[in-house]
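Standup notes
- DV: blocked on the single-chain target, sequence here:
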Amino acid sequence: MAPRASWAGKRLVVIGDVLLDRYLHGRVERISPEAPVPVVRLEGEEERPGGAANVAANVLALGGQVDLLSVIGDDAAGQRLRRWCSDSGIDPAGLRIDSRRPTPVKTRVLSRHQQMIRLDQEDDTPLDGETGAWLESAAERVLAGADGVIVSDYAKGVIGSRSLGGILRRARQRSLPVVIDPKIRNFDAYQPATVITPNQAEAAAAAGREIREMDDARLAAGRILERLEVEAVLITRGEHGMLLVPRRGAPTTIPARARAGMV
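- DV (later): unblocked, structure below
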């Protein structure tokens, strides 16, 4: 992780799908007589900013500043995300309210730190023309004071080819670095950009080849570089670490590091 000092004074624009992550903690003591499922006695609940909001939170934790642009619903989850923005020093006006779609919420039920089930509330249809135009206009305003752009696509409808293309072109005109966390359904829209960071499954789907070994990942990254107008591909491979393949220069392997207490 980069030291906080290196992020001081830097301002990043984070664009993408914001989510509310909800965690319900409890204990399983019996099986339901109504069906062969465990009965969870709830003991606690917590909520965290998720998706692009979590990316923004990480930038703040590293000492940077953030402009967060996304779309939320006219609901309690959206209100909580706007309140989190205000409390964190992020302008909540960057979260546009659309009463026709709910704020995405992921609810996880856990017992003894083990996830038992996840419930997703979402509408992943693309933004309408008016809202997409707002997103592009809002991005143009904040790019003037930015040092870089992060596109965090969770395939919940905020990232679309039309508005994203305009945003990326304006970022290039300003020579701003752009990092994209992709989803496969929007893959060809991610250009021009600086770095794209697919996980192994996304990279395999985008390259049309299975990835088992590091050599497979290198070949997949090469195909993605041919497909997209990006400067580098960073493939995340879980416990196998990461592989950074630039358009020019040698690939770099970044090993994974286990941490005590991490699951």
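- Follow-up: The longest strand covers residues 18-31.
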